[in-house]
Amino acid sequence: MVQAHVSEAIVTAGGIKAGALLVEDGRIVGGCGIDEIPGDVMRVEHGKMALLPGLVDSHVHINEPGRGDWEGFETATQAAAAGGYTTLVDMPLNGLPETTNVPALEAKRAAAEGHCVVDWAAWGGCVADNQGELEGLAAAGVCGFKCFLVYPGCEGFTMVDQAQLEAALPAIARTGLPLLVHAELQGPIDEAAEGLKDKDWRSYSTYLASRPDEAEVAAVRMLIGLCRKYGFRLHIVHLATGLALEMLREAKAEGLPVTVETCPHYLYFSAERVPYGSTVHKCAPPIRSERNRELLWQGLRDGVIDLVATDHSPCPAEMKRMDVGRFDLAWGGIASLSVALPVMFTEAVRRGFGLGDVMRWMGTAPAKLAGLEDRVGSLGAGREATFVVFDMEAEWLIGVNDLYFRHKVSPYLGERVKGRVMETWVRGQRVFEYGAGFAEGRTGRELRLC
């Protein structure tokens, strides 16, 4: 039976328009105007609710296998569905074992089997000593690779120095897959630490001073030089400093294959708003000033920043050390999967952007980064019927019951936002409905590049 999903606001790459998506056997078989809907189809009325493609989050820490007590496939994909995400690309560092070789990738696949509400894919890890594993990971279906230029917080996932990175880059270039880099260098961080030994570590200003802009700027400068030398696809994850935007603009103008992401927390919060001892705001790189936040928004406007990913990095509540409020002791990570879309929509609308812009930043561009753009991130005939029903007019206060991920810890608690995910559909099946919860069964699957 063909279904006609009818809406006054269907969001496509060509704009927002009234119409209907015609769906049969889990696929979009066409579209039409509201007055053109065939009489023999079942109408599903969405009224003024927007229909947009399922979002793609290309930067998520799911943590299974091995650290399911932090977050697992079940809770991460539930939070994703509630937040309008239908594809997650998992980072390689927080599971045990870390995804740095094919056996570890297979262990992750086993952990995911039968537990996913939405679809997922995997990044492979590039660490100090696994240069010989990278092409095997590519052949096994990862979307690309992730590395750290500083200590990542997990002992088993080693950072790379420049020499180790250069040893890996020829293999990465041969795969044609992107290298995602946590772009901070240790030198400026170590220099900053010398003057902070006696400072108050419950003050956010102390933590901010410990991760200076120059750590990011120096790393981006080095990476652009390596991109020019080796010709690999470079992706800068979670850019937090606006001071690197001009050199990134120049690198793109030069034709280098460079893409850039930032995160909702850098676009929503500012250092001036972080309360004393509020370790739930700790992340790395850190949330910077209000002025810096507006530079990042300008970077999005100008196209220097390509996409927005959550860097959803959950942990057990005790690891945030809210009991003592010391930023030097707390885990650095912000959990936001189920609320990132309304957070971004709220701030985007304030600056004159629309839902189509948000869809591009959080759907189309992340899908392209991961090599999945032929399968996810847009609506069109022949595509799987994977989409989100979004109430653009809803205004609400984020509460504990809106988080859905495993540990209800987030700096977004208590924030007032606009826009709410009402339903999420995957391959023609509704997997989430606001107020009713999640469908039975776990039909999410892995999306592999090969």
From TrEMBL:
A Pfam cross-reference name: Amidohydro_1
UniProt cofactor(s): Zn(2+)
EC number annotated for this UniProt entry: 3.5.2.5
GO biological process: allantoin catabolic process; purine nucleobase catabolic process
RNA-binding as UniProt keyword: no
Record's keyword terms, sorted: Hydrolase, Metal-binding, Zinc
Gene Ontology cellular-component terms listed: cytoplasm
Ranges annotated as spanning the membrane: none
Pathway annotation from the record: Nitrogen metabolism; (S)-allantoin degradation; allantoate from (S)-allantoin: step 1/1
PANTHER family membership: ALLANTOINASE
UniProt record similarity statement: Belongs to the metallo-dependent hydrolases superfamily. Allantoinase family. Belongs to the metallo-dependent hydrolases superfamily. DHOase family. Class I DHOase subfamily.
NCBIfam families: allantoinase
Identification of the protein by name: allantoinase
